[in-house]
Amino acid sequence: MMNRFRKSALAFALVAWLAASLAGCNNLGYYAQAVGGHVAVMRAAQPISGVLGNPAGDPALKKQLENVHAIREFASRELGLPDNNSYRSYADLGRPYVVWNVFAAPEFSLAPMRWCMVWVGCVSYRGYYDKQDAEALAAELREQGYDTFVGGVPAYSTLGYFDDPVLNTFLRLGTPEVARTVFHELAHQLIFVQDDSLFNESFATAVENEGMRRWLASHGDAGQRAAFEAQRQRKAAFAGLMRDFRKKFHALYETDRSAADQRQAKADLFEALRQDYAKLKAGWGGYAGYDRFVAEDLNNAKLASLALYSELVPAFERLLEIEDRNLPRFYQRVVALAALGKEARCAALTGLLPASGESRRACHSLAAGATQ
What we know:
The chain is mainly alpha-helical. Helix content is 63%, strand content 8%.
C-alpha cells in the first residue's frame, strides 16, 4: 500500500499533468519540473516522530525538531491556524533552498509579470526546483527587456492540499525563523485568494508577525524578545524606505520623458536609494542583513518582489489592532475582504492607512502586471 506521501505526490502529479495539458505545450517543461521537484520533496519526508524515536539519530537535529513540534502545536492552539499533518514530517533536501523564484518587471514599470497556473491562479513569480532553470528564464526575460530577480526560497505552501514537511532549508536558519515560516505558510492554508499575490503575502506576513510576538511572549527570554523587536523595527524601516522610493519610481515612470532620460533618471534614483539605505543602516549597530539585496543588481523586479511581502502589511496590522488583536475576529474580517473583487479589496485595505491615495496607487500597480 502506498504511504500518504506517495499518494500526495501522485495526486500532485495528476493535477499538474492535467494543468499542463490545459495550458498547452509551451508549459509542459515547466510543469514537468514542478511535478518532479515536488515529488522529490515528498519522497524525502519522514515523520518527525520517527526521527525523534530513532536511538541513532542526530541529537542536534532531534532538539531542533522538538522545537518544531512545540511551534506547530502553538500555531494551531494559540493562533487558530490549521491543525493538520503539515509540518509534522521532516525532509533534508541537501541544498540551501527548496525553490528559486523568478521575478520580472518592465524596464519602466514596477508592475510585476504574472504567471498563471490552474491550481493557484496567477502569481507574481515563477518557481523552479533547479537554480539553473530559474536563471535561464531570467536570462531569457532580460533579453526581452525586462528587469529580473532570482531569489532562493526556503519554504512554500501547497495550501493544505498536501502535508507540507519541515525542510532543512529553513530549519538551518534557527528556531525563530522556523516559527516565522510555519506561521506564515499555515496562514496561506487558512486564507488564500487566487490571482492576488499581494493580498496573500501581506496577510501571511501579518499573521507571522503576530505569531512571533505571541510565541516569544510565552516561550522566549528577554534577549530573544529584544532581538525580535530590534529586527521588527529594522524590517519596518527598510520596508518604509523601499515604499518611499517605489513612489518616486512610480512618479518617474508616469512621465512622458524619453526612454533615454527615464533610463538615466532611473539609475540616479537607484543610486539615491543606496545612499539613503547607507544612512538608515548607520543606526543599526552593524547589522548588514539587507546589504546584498541593495548592492547587487538593484532593479524594478527587486522592488516589486519586496512589495509583495510588505506593501499591505501595515493595513492588515491596522485591521488586527481594530479587532483588539482578536485573531478569530481578524480572520473573519480577512475572509470578508477575500470575498471582494481585487479592486475593492485594495481600496478597503489601503483605506486603513494614513496615505491611502499613495498606497492605493501602489496596490493597483502591483496587481496590474502583465500575464504570461
